[in-house]
Amino acid sequence: MSIINLIAIDGPAASGKSTLAELIAKKLNYFFFDTGVMYRAVTLAALDNVTDLDNESLVTEVANRIQIDVQPASKQDGRVMDILVDGKDITWQIRTPEVDHNVSKVSAYAGVRKAMTDQQRRIGERGNMVMVGRDIGTVVFPDAKHKIYLEASPEERARRRYVEVQKRGESISYEDILTSIRKRDDLDSSRAVAPLKPADDAYVIDSDGKTIDVVLQEALQILGKPVS
Ligand code: DC
User: Fold this and answer.
1) Domain total for the chain?
2) Which residues pair with 112 in a beta bridge?
3) Ligand 1 neighbour 113 (Cβ under 6 A)
4) pTM for the full predicted model
5) Residue whose CA is closest, atom 13 of ligand 1?
């Protein structure tokens, strides 16, 4: 497998991967694809259809059964794209604290990961794509031409997420967000299958205390693109 025009961007929850990826995609006229939405969609469908999320085989069945689609944004309500499950718009439903709370458990299941990884590879083979996740550079596309791993401290990430949820009018405290981010970091990096970690050949960018513009310039330099 040799993917020429795929940029893999991995990193922990709320590190700014999607914002960076969107800007790079716009600049290069690439397609932006955030794989986290797929794990969130499976989690939402599992919450709706399975009484016990500890039941790995039932959750995996859900992952194999549902059809996840990503389409250009149909509304101007802050969304970057529409996320559909079996034709139903679930763009904002996958961002609730309940999904946040359960998504690391669901995404640790080997069968769920296999189903999602297969779909991501099929999508990525189109090329000209910035693909965002936790394991894109390590597992999904280890031959991606460019790999960036974006880091930031849990406190900085919680602050950013807090600003985001406030803008959407949701009431959740900074402390709860920080606790949830720490828990997800632990689960995402300690799972047996495709744990969160930088690929050996990834460029690591620490975004603490940097504006998104500074991070973008750093990324474009890594990608060897003109920075103006
Ligand atoms: O990036 P995010 O917060 O939307 O991701 C949601 C969850 O999905 C995250 O806790 C880990 C999981 N995930 C994953 O395991 N592998 C990916 N490629 C993308 C996301």
Assistant:
1) 1
2) none
3) no
4) 0.90
5) 36
- Count helices and strands in the chain by DSSP H and E runs: 8, 8
Helices (H), 52-109: 56-65, 97-107
**Residue 133 Cβ contacting ligand 1 at under 6 Å:** yes
Domain harbouring 85, CATH code: 3.40.50.300
Range of the domain at 140: 3-221
Q: Does the C-beta of 36 come closer than 6 Å to ligand 1?
A: yes
Cα(69)–Cα(66) distance, rounded to whole angstroms?
10
* Residue 59 vs residues 53, 88, 98, 169, 216: alpha-carbon distances, Å: 7, 19, 16, 31, 37
- Domain assignment present for 44: yes
In-domain check, residue 228: no
Q: Which atom of ligand 1 is nearest to the CA of 37?
A: 4
pLDDT in tens, the chain (228 residues): 555 689 999 999 889 999 999 999 999 999 999 999 999 999 999 999 998 999 999 999 999 999 998 888 899 988 888 999 999 999 999 999 899 899 999 999 999 999 999 999 988 988 899 999 999 999 999 999 999 999 999 999 999 999 988 988 888 899 999 999 999 899 989 999 999 999 999 999 999 999 999 999 999 999 986 655
The answer as to whether 227 is a domain residue is no
Residue 82 lies in a domain: yes
Nearest CA, atom 8, ligand 1: 36
